[in-house]
Amino acid sequence: MEGANQTVVLEFILLGLSKHHNVEIVLFVLCLGIYLVILLGNSSLIVLTIMDSNLHSPMYFFLSNLSFMDIFGTSSFVPLMLVNFLSVRRTISFPGCALQMYLTLALGTTESVLLAMMAYDRYVAICNPLRYTIIMNMKVCVQLASLSWIIGSVNSLLQTVLALRLSFCGNNMIDHFFCEILAVLKLACVDISLNAFVMMVALVLVTLTPLLLIFISYVFILATILRVNSAKGRKKAFSTCSAHLAVVIIFFGTIVFMYSKPKAKDPDSDKLIALFYGAVTSMLNPIIYSLRNKEVKAAVKKVMFSNKA
Hints:
The chain is mainly alpha-helical. It contains eleven helices and three strands; from the N terminus they run E-H-H-H-E-H-H-H-E-H-H-H-H-H. Helix 1 (21-51) packs antiparallel against helix 2 (58-75).
């Protein structure tokens, strides 16, 4: 950190909804339940994908990566947030805040890019089914997943380093549930125009670009499905990508709502929306893929019956 005459910030205070303790008690119970569902649902999908040979396909390989992101991403901030809901002193060390900021941003970015990779997988499966196994071989899948992780990590590292080099002038009260990068930047007492510029570029590259690629993929997918003669064939083709489409709508829909809505008079509403984006979407992903997927249901039954036997 720069600025020798400035007070060195060694820890931050996470305000959350400290003025509404009764609401925080309700949020504690709600978020604890959501977190347990995230751990159970996503870990179950990962285990099923490993155990059932019928799920050894590109789509479930990407889904396992998505599930791991959801577990790791929410675990980077939810446990401490739950403790803070019941605590009077809600502090986080400077290194801890930096790590939390890095992880939440990295995993959010990685998920955005991975959803675009999954859209490409669905495009190949529906628009070029005869060459699907050749194009989407395991080597390509690993490369696409790795690229998602690398992009997310590099973007987050750059933004976190730029944030940490700022001077905070002794103001260490973060008006949020966790070390969200925008909330941290508000504490800076120096010019943050470079940070704002980098964030804007990153928004275009790692959020809007994947969204555009997903849109283009589904234009081709829809065109292919509409050319199918039978209604049964169209329904079967669409069912293979309906779960992914639902996850995309929830993930990017929440982001668009967060950035496009008018600034709220009550800042607490913005915190709750960010909480929904960070936790609730991670809970819905395994539920959507379980309810909308016959192969996952069959794998669950297979594992359950094999255990009884």
